[in-house]
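2024-03-11 09:14:02 INFO worker-7 job=invfold-0412 stage=load source=structure_tokens
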């Protein structure tokens, strides 16, 4: 039975019964000098195996990671409130971050200095370097709970552009010339970065509950959305392709195993990522599991238990040989469940052949879909 369902399918409990069991617990290496509070976002440099991690302890840490998964802390800077989002410049020399202090900050690895580069009227939920129009200068975009997108030229103190959104920003990602923003009320807003001053279209997510996370495919022709209801959608930008090949599926759920009235445990999907060189993608959630999926085969390739707690964020390195995942409280159950002894760490999973093989037993070698 397929674990995936077409967008056109009527999803029933029997059709979509997916085992949320996490599978084996890998012996992955833990990061050196872990953050002191929940990890909210992690991101690998596009140029080298350096990882930036944003945390609720107000800090952003930068680590060097070896091919074997060993790590060493290299730099640290601070916000005045929880840091929620982090991203690298294309040349790998700078890190930007944003958070609950309503500020965006830039850290220069060459000088070791940080400075404020952005401001909003409410929490900044997401920050990205983007390729805007014909600009030859780095441009940063921030998405906030104040219902705006703002674009920042790093040479100026005020935003170059402000775009109003239908609701608060909950998730955001960009690749090439495509920016997608997930907001409250399950809205998805699309921006063509050749025309960054306008929203090209806004649609309603076909997932039934609040958007938790989204990721744009490296080719910028597709994207994934995950929700608090333990469901994901893999959608294409082209409407005809999406009607033919777009899918929604249930994951990070523990199905009823006894009586028909037994409850199903439903976990938030906290992270989705595309492998950079294959057709494989990943999901991770508050059940403490991370899964490797083959979209073309419509099946799960491998399931793992992170070990000990929710997985709020994940990231592949530039070659796809290392998969980083954080283990920490994801706030999906409110502040009362954030116990002092809840684990907080980041682990590195070295990708093996069985993680990226199709169900037919063939290892993917490209992005053909």
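2024-03-11 09:14:09 INFO worker-7 stage=emit residues=369
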């Amino acid at each position: 039975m397929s674990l995936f369902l077409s967008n056109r399918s009527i999803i029933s409990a029997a059709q979509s019964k997916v085992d949320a069991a996490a599978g084996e617990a890998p012996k992955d290496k833990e990061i050196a000098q872990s953050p002191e509070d929940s990890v909210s976002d992690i991101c690998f440099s596009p140029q080298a195996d350096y990882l930036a991690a944003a945390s609720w302890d107000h800090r952003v840490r930068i680590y060097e990671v070896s091919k074997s998964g060993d790590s060493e802390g290299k730099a640290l800077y601070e916000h005045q409130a929880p840091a929620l989002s982090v991203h690298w410049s294309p040349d790998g020399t700078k890190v930007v971050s944003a958070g609950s202090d309503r500020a965006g900050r830039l850290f220069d690895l060459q000088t070791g200095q940080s400075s404020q580069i952005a401001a909003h009227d409410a929490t900044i939920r997401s920050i990205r370097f983007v390729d805007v129009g014909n600009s030859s200068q780095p441009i940063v975009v921030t998405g906030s709970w104040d219902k705006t997108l703002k674009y920042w030229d790093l040479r100026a103190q005020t935003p170059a552009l402000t775009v109003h959104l239908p609701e608060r920003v909950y998730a955001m990602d960009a690749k090439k010339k495509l920016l997608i923003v997930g907001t409250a009320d399950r809205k998805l807003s699309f921006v063509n970065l050749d025309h960054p001053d306008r929203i090209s279209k806004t649609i309603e997510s076909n997932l039934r509950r609040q958007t938790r996370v989204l990721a744009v495919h490296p080719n910028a022709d597709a994207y994934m959305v995950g929700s608090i209801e333990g469901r994901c959608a893999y959608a294409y930008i082209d409407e005809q392709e999406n009607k033919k090949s777009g899918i929604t599926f249930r994951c990070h759920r523990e199905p009823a195993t006894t009586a028909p009235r037994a409850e199903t445990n439903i976990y938030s999907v906290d992270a989705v990522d595309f492998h950079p060189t294959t057709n494989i993608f990943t999901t991770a959630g508050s059940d403490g599991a991370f899964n490797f999926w083959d979209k073309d085969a419509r099946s799960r390739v491998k399931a793992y238990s992170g070990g000990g707690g929710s997985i709020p964020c994940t990231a592949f390195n530039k070659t796809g040989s290392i998969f980083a995942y954080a283990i920490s409280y994801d706030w999906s159950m409110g502040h009362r469940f954030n116990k002092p002894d809840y684990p907080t760490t980041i682990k590195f999973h070295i990708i093996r052949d069985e993680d990226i093989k199709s169900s037919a037993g063939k290892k993917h070698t490209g992005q053909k879909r």
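2024-03-11 09:14:09 INFO worker-7 stage=report msg="The first strand starts at residue 5 and ends at 6."
2024-03-11 09:14:10 INFO worker-7 job finished
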